[in-house]
Amino acid sequence: MFFTINLRRMRRLALPLAGLVFLVCLWRAIPATVPAATDPNEGVPVPVVMYHSLLPGGNSDYVIDPALFEQDLMYLQQQGYTTVTVSDLIAYVNHGNPLPKKPVMLTFDDGYYNNYLYAHPLLKQYGMRAVIAPIGSVSEYYSANPAEQNHPRYSHVTWAQLTEMTKDGVWEIGHHSYNLHRTDKGRKGVAQKKGESDASYRQQLAEDLQKATELLKTHVGVTPTVFVYPFGAHTTGTDPTLKEAGFTATLSCVERVSRITRDPDSLWRIGRYRRPPGVDSQHYFEPIFQKAEE
Fold this sequence. Notes:
This protein has 9 helices and 15 strands. The chain has helices at residues 2-29, 66-78, 86-95, 113-126, 136-144, 159-167, 198-219, 238-244, 281-293; strands at 33-34, 44-46, 48-51, 53-54, 59-60, 63-64, 82-83, 99-100, 103-110, 130-134, 171-173, 226-228, 249-251, 258-260, 273-274.
């Protein structure tokens, strides 16, 4: 009798228990995301890494070895991080789209050909994405001069290469000015020169922005929404001019973890950490991720 009663109880419990197991398995199968914040004071911390050139044996402030970049991708994958682009952040802010539980953004400044040669296939291999910000006049030059193309040490990406990179869904194209990535004639990047009138400054910046935007739209089929400050330089009139030109986000060179909220202003001057050579992935990323958790 005792055995019969327990057996009946077990049968009665079997169906709800099976349902519970199913729900647990389903919960584990759903990718972890962060719901969109509704309070501007809430949000998601997003670590952003700044790369430049990749070359075998690279060991300078702005050049690292492709093997180290691959080590970074492997480490991020092992730690459960998901790469996002600026478009993902904009969708989170403006439309409430969720972000991954552990987001990270990889960015490449200047648009070197070696980004296409080395970073592009590695990103595809590991199923990751990145943001590249080419200099408009430089990509224009290399696109028009075939003999200068495809040299890992000095060439920059062409329109055709950028088009391939975007079609693969791996890259988002940013804007790094048409011809203001320079420090001559009293100007540093897109910052206003000393003694320059506000009206003159904003007009020159607007013309430069428009030229690069039109080239990218014509030759690559994209209209950038993120501007990457050359050298991280900007002044009072910079952001208003960028907003008038249609940009909704900017990337700075300030090393900090930015918190992206429902406030559109959180998309401006997003902090980034430069990736130096000579530091393994764990020791590079751990302090950054610790700041993101603070």
